[in-house]
From TrEMBL:
Residues 2-98 form the Pyrroline-5-carboxylate reductase catalytic N-terminal domain. Pfam families: F420_oxidored, P5CR_dimer. It catalyses: L-proline + NADP(+) = (S)-1-pyrroline-5-carboxylate + NADPH + 2 H(+); L-proline + NAD(+) = (S)-1-pyrroline-5-carboxylate + NADH + 2 H(+). NADP(+) binds at residues 6-11, 34, 68-71. It is found in: Cytoplasm. One of its GO terms (molecular function) is pyrroline-5-carboxylate reductase activity. PROSITE patterns: P5CR. Residues 163-268 form the Pyrroline-5-carboxylate reductase dimerisation domain. HAMAP family: P5C_reductase. This is Pyrroline-5-carboxylate reductase. The gene is proC. Its EC number is 1.5.1.2. It comes from the Bacteria.
Length: 270
């Protein structure tokens, strides 16, 4: 199976690295294009995959096509592929935020039965701990959805969800690595304020967050609040910090931030 990536920036590179590391496909089965041939060759060389000269050539070559360009670039890319898509049965996977299956279908008027699969991954695919949502239009066969799932299972976990839940999923998984890094960095700055070197403080905060997530993930029937209670010694240090966080509306602030991502996704769809 040959997989093609149109666009090879943050996300495509993360997926390719994870896919190759998982040995689901070899670098030899992966093809990419970027905005210039020189850049494509440079990135492909770094990743050990093939660069092709144009998006048209890529679409002719591969069995599955992954659109990994910014959402605003997708209309141009699909218009350029219109002729090929009218003759070739080529499932297209889009990872773009804010573009629905219906939006994508409207961009390929030459093939009213064009197969589109929508995936919302996150950056953690780089270390094969991504969380990806998958949905497909009615023209996609079960086996093809399964193949898309296999690609993203190789770089983390996948959830087949209804398209109506994509925005919610994007806020919880697609965007949240950025918020988690912000939290880690904030803790690390506190460490610096109180005398530790930045690199050491960041390493400690990162490992603390990683271990906390691993513990929560490993517990079968405990909620985050059950674990919070276990960390808070009566009259101790943690509860003092917890009260301070909630005085500053930590939970409400996070919910407001995720609501903002959903609102932005809605705006991008219009
Ligand atoms: N960055 C993230 O954490 C996530 C991003 N996404 C989605 O992934 C997509 C890509 O995002 P990033 O990788 O962050 O963007 P990026 O800006 O890092 O990469 C975009 C790539 O597209 C290439 N490109 C631009 N025009 C092109 C054209 N006409 N033909 C071929 N290649 C072209 C650029 O050279 C670059 O390699 C977006 O649609 C975004 O919504 C989805 C989930 C997470
Ligand atoms: O910021 C964005 O729009 C993309 C989608 C999810 C993560 N990054």
């Amino acid at each position: 199976m040959k997989i093609g990536f149109i666009g090879a920036g943050n996300m495509a590179q993360a997926i390719i690295k994870g896919l190759v590391a998982s040995e689901t496909v070899t670098g030899d089965a992966i093809y990419l294009t970027t905005s210039t041939v020189e850049h494509s060759q440079e990135v492909a060389g770094q990743l050990g995959v093939h660069a092709l000269a144009s998006n048209e050539e890529l679409a002719k070559t591969v069995d599955y096509l992954i659109l990994a360009v910014k959402p605003g670039v997708i209309p141009t890319v699909l218009t350029d592929l219109s002729a090929i898509l009218s003759t070739k049965d080529l499932p297209i996977i889009s990872i773009a935020a804010g573009l629905t299956l219906a939006d994508l279908a409207n961009l390929v008027p030459t093939n009213p039965q064009q197969k589109f699969i929508r995936v919302m991954p996150n950056m953690n695919v780089t270390v094969r701990m991504g969380v990806s949502a998958i949905t497909a239009n009615t023209f996609v066969e079960e086996q093809e959805t399964f193949t898309a799932q296999t690609i993203f299972d190789a770089v983390g976990s996948t959830y087949l969800i209804a398209e109506k839940d994509f925005r919610n999923f994007t806020s919880l998984a697609g965007c949240s690595p950025a918020y988690t890094y912000l939290f880690i960095d904030a803790m690390s700055r506190a460490g610096v304020k109180n005398g530790l070197p930045k690199a050491l403080a960041t390493k400690i905060a990162t490992e603390a967050v990683m271990g906390s997530a691993a513990l929560l993930s490993a517990t079968e029937d405990e909620t985050p609040w059950d674990l919070i209670d276990k960390v808070c010694s009566p009259g101790g240090t943690t509860v003092a910090g917890l009260v301070s966080l909630e005085e500053d509306a930590f939970t409400a602030t996070v919910i407001r931030a995720l609501d903002a991502t959903i609102k932005r996704d809605e705006e991008m769809t219009k």
